[in-house]
Amino acid sequence: TILSLAASAGSVEDLELEDVMKVGYQDIRCVESGGPEPGVGCAGRGVITSINFLEENGAYENIDYVSYDVLGDVVCGGFAMPIRENKAQEIYIVMSGEMMAIYAANNISKGILKYANSGGV
After folding, report:
1. pLDDT tens-digit profile of 89-112?
2. What are phi and psi for residue 55, nearest 5 degrees?
3. Which keywords describe this protein according to UniProt (predicted)?
């Protein structure tokens, strides 16, 4: 993950995009941001750090779509960062019919409603 590799290297500035990005079938690019160990740090901060690293290193150049798989059971401002900072044009929520998935989708929806107008979604 970006955060685990950054911890090993010393900081996120010591990483290269090739260290964290895997390229697969039909040039699909995949990155895992990671998060802190339980009880230590902020997972939302990891999202912000990862997105900023990817932007600064050109990960979003020449792509058609960006998809984020986020935790919905954690109500954290960091997870709303892509919406608040106008990094999202459209948002789609995909979930199963399980109660925790519905709970997570509801939390994400609340964040979207809060920041959609200011973020241009």
Report:
1. 788 888 899 998 888 888 888 878
2. -65, -50
3. 4Fe-4S, ATP-binding, Iron, Iron-sulfur, Metal-binding, Nucleotide-binding, Oxidoreductase
> Rounded CA gap, 118 and 88, in Å?
11
**30 - beta bridge partners?**
22
Q: State pTM to two decimals.
A: 0.77
Token output for 64: 């058609």
Structure tokens at 110: 């609340």
Inter-residue contact 72 to 107 (CB < 8 Å): yes
Q: How is the chain classified by DSSP, letter by letter?
A: -HHHHHHHHSSGGG--HHHH-EE-GGG-EE-----PPTTSS-HHHHHHHHHHHHHHTTTTTT-S-------SSS--GGGGHHHHTT--S-------SSHHHHHHHHHHHHHHHHHHHHHT-
29 C-beta neighbours (distance < 10 Å), count: 14
pLDDT on residue 5: 93
